[in-house]
């Protein structure tokens, strides 16, 4: 059987990495919004802004022409940050053939609508099967061939198995799941909690404090995700606890870096001005808090992150606020 043609939207660190993996077995093209980024990938086999030092495979094509990328695609991979995906998909809709499945790499929730990315896909590309690939996957490490694993969640397990084969290598293990909302909520929420743990780093808290916040964050995101229809075991898996661990501890995590800057007393705008890549947790934090309100779930850790990110509270205030509340039953209460 002929290998399917894959189009990846977004030539950032993760879109480029996943495109590079897929290009080893299938014809793959990455769409970059910026023509000079597409030229750099196509001509120099590098993407210095997003994947410094990486040497990209010859088979990976790149273009800034959306129609060229998408019109003959058999599989569409979405790697554009959450707040930009809808408008890109709107432009893709008239070009994409109607049966093409969509795999989202995106770990964020849309502001205003509170939608996950496969829900955005369902609205903008109705009828296209959609799933999410998510897990503890720092792009730089995956791109350099270090072993890692992710979960591909789709309602149709037969299609999930076929798509998983496109991204699987001997070093990149792809597991399957049908808990799409659980996998997407886990991927979006862990960024918010990595900001909380980064704040502890910046404020020079100890390892015990960080372990406490990570563990209770895992429970907070599982409670919210379950209330939205996700399964508890998903939050204990690769897309949940696995990704929470790596994002809260990796020196490469952009969300943890934002929290660290805030913990050092820097202003959010100043921290973001020094970054060339996205930190999805910044825009997803208010969405998490609003969604939690809608479904009646307490999310004290996310609320404190929101206080610092959007409401002028200091990191000290946030941690004092958290420590003031009395701990209840470890696994049954709705506190933190
Ligand atoms: N970098 C990583 O280690 C991983 C990232 N992810 C997720 O993948 C998604 C993409 O992130 P990265 O590639 O890391 O981001 P990035 O910051 O490295 O690159 C983002 C790319 O999207 C483009 N872009 C931004 N806004 C756009 C818009 N409105 N329209 C079109 N293009 C736009 C940028 O030009 C850039 O090429 C995020 O949701 C992230 O959470 C998931 C797993 C690992
Ligand atoms: O999703 C990621 C790792 O799995 C990347 O995390 P950051 O966006 O915080 O860098």
Secondary-structure blueprint:
Blueprint: E1 6-9, H1 13-22, E2 28-31, H2 35-44, E3 60-63, H3 66-70, E4 75-78, H4 82-92, E5 102-104, H5 117-124, E6 130-134, H6 139-143, E7 148-153, H7 157-167, E8 172-177, H8 180-202, H9 207-227, H10 232-235, H11 238-249, H12 254-263, H13 268-273, H14 281-295, H15 300-310, H16 315-324
Parallel strand pairs: 1-2, 1-4, 2-3, 4-5, 5-6, 7-8
Antiparallel strand pairs: 6-7
Helix pairs in contact: 4-5, 8-9, 8-11, 8-12, 8-14, 8-15, 9-11, 14-15, 15-16
Bound molecules: 1,4-dihydronicotinamide adenine dinucleotide and 1,3-dihydroxyacetonephosphate.
The site of 1,4-dihydronicotinamide adenine dinucleotide (NAI) has 26 residues, from helix 1 and helix 4.
Structural notes for this entry:
By secondary structure, the protein is of the alpha/beta class. The protein folds into two domains: 6-178, NAD(P)-binding Rossmann-like Domain (Rossmann fold, 3-Layer(aba) Sandwich), CATH 3.40.50; 182-324, N-(1-d-carboxylethyl)-l-norvaline Dehydrogenase, domain 2 (Orthogonal Bundle), CATH 1.10.1040. Helix content is 51%, strand content 11%. It is built from 16 helices and eight strands. Helix 8 crosses helix 15. The radius of gyration is 19 Å and the shape is globular. The chain starts with 5 loop residues before the first strand and ends in a 12-residue tail after the last helix. The mean pLDDT is 97. The structure holds 1,4-dihydronicotinamide adenine dinucleotide (NAI) and 1,3-dihydroxyacetonephosphate. It comes from Nocardioides immobilis. Keywords: Cytoplasm, Lipid biosynthesis, Lipid metabolism, NAD, NADP, Nucleotide-binding, Oxidoreductase, Phospholipid biosynthesis, Phospholipid metabolism. The active site is at 190 (proton acceptor).
